[in-house]
Amino acid sequence: MNTPAEVREQIRAGKWNKPTTGFNFETLQANIVILPVQYAGAFKEYTRSNPKPCPVLEVIHPGSYVSELADGSDIRKDVPKYRIYRQGELVEQAEDVTEIWQNDFVTFLIGCSFTFENALIDSGIRLRHIEEKKNVAMYRTNIETVEAGPFHGPMVVSMRPVPQEQAKLAAEITEKFPRTHGGPVHIGDPREIGIQNLDQPDYGEAIELKEGEVPVFWACGVTPQEAVLRAKLPIAITHEPGHMFVMDKTYDELD
């Protein structure tokens, strides 16, 4: 199994551009949001007001691109794929953002549900997006986040099919991981949270719901991308959904 450092090395070398789900079941993974310092205060308030989809693990301040949770890391190069937004438009997807890096950039590392997947698997809950080597399915909902400054928008959720009899167990397990989204925000009928068709995720790949299974929805760290899009900042950088920043530390090692 690859270590986090080895994965980051492969990413920098252009040898790993796939989703990071299932790669390592021990250490933290993070969503990223990079934006100019003048917007950092409002975005920080947005994350505080929406802790379920936006649990902040670390803030990398201006002038630095090294995470304290990943030795020798370089946030400009260590994400498999980036999304670059200008004025609320996705203008580019890249594997390295060094050339457009600005000294006033602040990086927010936001908890990711990939972190608790090992705990689900260890409890006998199968995760078929991992078995099928797919990205997790993610959907916009009708759940509005709390606005802060220019940042607002719908909550995005990730969905994993779980056998009906294991849904309660899945909720109990993930509630122990509040800094990586915690327990589900919804179990059951997707239409109740504004999702009309599970076969058409807004991000990631569709996972078939089989007989006897129920869809379980967790808050997702792609939510800030929706907020950044609506804020129409001059420039902002995020990860490609499912392509996370891989850290060295485990959940239990968080301060």
From TrEMBL:
| Entry keywords, A to Z | Lyase
Q: Please state the Enzyme Commission number of this protein.
A: 4.2.1.-
Which Gene3D superfamilies does this UniProt record tie to the protein? PSTPO5379-like, PSTPO5379-like domain
Domain of life the protein comes from = Bacteria
Can the keyword Lyase be found in this entry's annotation? yes
Enzyme kind, highest EC tier: lyase
Q: Which PANTHER family match?
A: D-GLUTAMATE CYCLASE, MITOCHONDRIAL
NCBIfam families from the entry? PRK05463.1 (NF003969)
Query: Which family, according to the similarity comment?
Result: Belongs to the D-glutamate cyclase family.
Protein name (database record): Putative hydro-lyase ACFPU1_01300
